[in-house]
Amino acid sequence: MTPVPSPQNELVGALYRDHRGWLLAWLRRNVACPQRAEDLSQDTFLRLLGREQLTAPREPRAFLVAIAKGLLFDHFRRAALEQAYLTELMLIPEAEQPSVEEQQMILEDLKNIDRLLGKLSSKARAAFLYNRLDGLGHAQIAERLGVSVPRVRQYLAQGIRQCYIALYGEPT
């Protein structure tokens, strides 16, 4: 039996056929590595396939670029995170450094945490990190972010909710 394509899959297929080459060329101009450009191009269309609802965009190329830019930003943020981790690792005496396997596991955990916190607004992410990593209290965070203490509580609740979802899935 041949599966019946959904209208959404047909739309993604049409976008892929009509604009993939153009998107790939755009990505190659913006990314030094041709393989990374290929991956980002594919990830852009995979992101579309993962959407629950998709309507035909009025400006398909602008629509695809917006998605690709988000993926590109995520890529650069994760690369910066990895570089920061490796830089910090170099400061640890060699005898105390984790094994290569442990380093990879730590790096994957950091990327997962980054992905998790990436779902929060920048202020919610900052509030959560100030609280959990720096041990700042609500009033200190409110002052740093220029928001009220109740808003900080909301931000922290959002961060905790993301952690809950990562551990246990969506609450029912």
UniProtKB/TrEMBL annotation:
Cell cycle as UniProt keyword: no
> Residue ranges of the RNA polymerase sigma-70 region domain?
15-80
InterPro entries linked: RNA_pol_sigma-70-like, RNA_pol_sigma-70_dom, RNA_pol_sigma70_r2, RNA_pol_sigma70_r4_t2, RNA_pol_sigma_r2, RNA_pol_sigma_r3/r4-like, WH-like_DNA-bd_sf
* Tagged with keyword Transcription regulation: yes
Q: Which UniProt keywords apply?
A: Sigma factor, Transcription, Transcription regulation
Q: Tell me which Pfam families the record gives.
A: Sigma70_r2, Sigma70_r4_2
Q: Name one GO molecular function term.
A: DNA binding
Q: Which NCBIfam families match?
A: PRK12523.1, sigma70-ECF
What is the protein name stated in its UniProt record? RNA polymerase sigma-70 factor, ECF subfamily
Organism field: Pseudomonas moorei
Q: Taxonomically, what lineage is the organism?
A: Bacteria, Pseudomonadati, Pseudomonadota, Gammaproteobacteria, Pseudomonadales
